[in-house]
Specification:
Layout: H1 6-9, H2 14-23, H3 30-41, H4 47-54, H5 58-76, H6 92-104, H7 110-119, H8 127-136, H9 153-162
Helix pairs in contact: 2-3, 3-4, 3-5, 4-5, 7-8
Pfam families: HTH_29, HTH_33
Protein name: Winged helix-turn helix domain-containing protein
Domain Winged helix-turn helix: 121-163
């Protein structure tokens, strides 16, 4: 592996790096700028020493330096916090189709919603996962009131009309 002359490779000046370090002091990007400053000043001769000084692995510092070489400070200071965590399985189009089917009354239960998504190639492991999806997106299943099988709707309507309004 060729030896890298870090003070030569790092384009920014010592003062500029110190200002950036102060500016990012309370953010998660602080250690990235500090790594550059340590390498530029010569306090650390290589990435291994910088990693030890920062309390990170050598591999992590290597990734940071590779992103710096790719796109300078602009690339190094890109926050990727929003990219963490599991990705949503359902696409926007599939979710809109699910909402439409729910509005039309084709879907009344979470199990039916699970089957609907499964038919569109979106495989949630369990129907309750679809229930979690609906809760995350603040969708409520619209269900009608239960009716007794022997109830006569005409008789009930007549009763409502004749009963006194209070």
């Amino acid at each position: 592996m060729p030896k890298i002359d870090y003070p030569q490779v790092i384009e920014e000046g010592q003062e500029e790096l110190e200002k950036l370090e102060k500016r990012h002091r309370y953010s998660h990007l602080f250690h990235r700028v500090r790594m550059l400053r340590l390498l530029k000043s010569g306090e650390c001769r290589n990435l291994e020493q910088a990693a030890e000084a920062l309390g990170y692995s050598w591999r992590q510092c290597q990734r940071w330096f590779a992103s710096y070489r790719e796109g300078a400070l602009k690339e190094l200071l890109v926050s990727r916090v929003h990219e963490r965590g599991p990705k949503e399985l359902v696409t926007d189009e599939a979710f809109e189709a699910l909402e439409e089917a729910m509005k039309e009354g084709q879907i009344a239960t979470i199990a039916q919603a699970h089957r609907f998504l499964l038919n569109r190639g979106i495989d949630y492991a369990h129907p309750e996962s679809v229930g979690q999806l609906l809760r995350r997106r603040k969708v409520k299943l619209k269900t009608g009131r239960l009716r007794h099988e022997k109830a006569d709707t005409e008789e009930q309507e007549a009763f409502k009309k004749t009963s006194l309004a209070k």
